[in-house]
Amino acid sequence: MTERRAQLAENLTQVEERIASACATAGRKREEVTLIVVTKTYPASDVRILHELGVRHVAENRDQDAAPKAAACADLSLTWHFVGQLQTNKVRSVASYADVVQSVDRAKLVTSLSAAAVRGERELDCLVQVALDADSGERGERGGVAPDAIEELAAAVDAAPGLRLGGLMTVAPLAGPYAGRQRAAFDRLMEFASRLRSDRPAATMVSAGMSADLEDAVAAGATHVRVGTAVLGVRPRLG
Ligand SMILES: *Cc1c(COP(=O)(O)O)cnc(C)c1O
């Protein structure tokens, strides 16, 4: 076993233990939570090792890095999640390898994702990204729509050919009333997710929680946690 493989295996075991223990504390089944490993800034060779270690969901936030990585790993059975702020000029590329786009935060993006999915004969699962720190009509510092825009965007995704509405995603805000209050932020997201699901029962995904706050996300009811640093190590640069 190479050194890198041993390191990733150990980190993965620790993250797995954290998720299992958070599930046990919350009275949830382990299968209710999917681990997505955020591989941004790390090479395709790491993705390959993670796949050998049983990881089946990976996430990226920049098309420039993600596209070649996904191509290099095209032989692996992986679900690729796109979690970064997405420019419309990158949509066609992203739609060619991503299975899930978690960062849908404006109508224009829905239109271009739909066109790209249809053209590429693909079905994309889309999550509406919610910015809990954004006021009505604004977008969040790290992407996402203000809560009062969720419904309209969800309806647009639902009506768009080639797209399926998966649910909601959030990143815990660094500013505003939820800064430093991850559990409260994730509870709030769950309220929006439950409301959405009552009209659109197929929209079951709730993506929340990262390396530092995955326990809060599991406790709140997240179905997907996105973990980078705790599996791969501290990133060499901001990403
Ligand atoms: C980088 C990133 C993560 C993972 O963050 P870590 O703190 O490294 O676990 C999760 N979600 C999004 C949207 C990210 O950009």
What do you see in this structure?
With 239 residues, this protein is α/β, with parallel strands linked by helices. The chain has helices at residues 3-26, 44-52, 63-72, 91-97, 107-119, 150-159, 182-199, 214-220, 229-232, and strands spanning 34-38, 57-60, 79-82, 100-104, 124-130, 163-170, 205-207, 224-227. It has a single domain (3-231), classed as Alpha-Beta Barrel (TIM Barrel). Helix content is 43%, strand content 17%. It has an eight-stranded parallel beta sheet with strand order 7-6-5-4-3-2-1-8. It is globular and about 50 Å long. Bound molecules: pyridoxal-5'-phosphate. Pyridoxal-5'-phosphate is lined by residues 38, 40, 61, 83, 171, 210-212, 226-230. Pyridoxal-5'-phosphate binds at residues 38, 40, 61, 83, 171, 210-212, 226-230.
Question: What is this structure's SSE topology?
Answer:
Elements: H1 3-26, E1 34-38, H2 44-52, E2 57-60, H3 63-72, E3 79-82, H4 91-97, E4 100-104, H5 107-119, E5 124-130, H6 150-159, E6 163-170, H7 182-199, E7 205-207, H8 214-220, E8 224-227, H9 229-232
Helix pairs in contact: 1-8, 4-5, 7-8
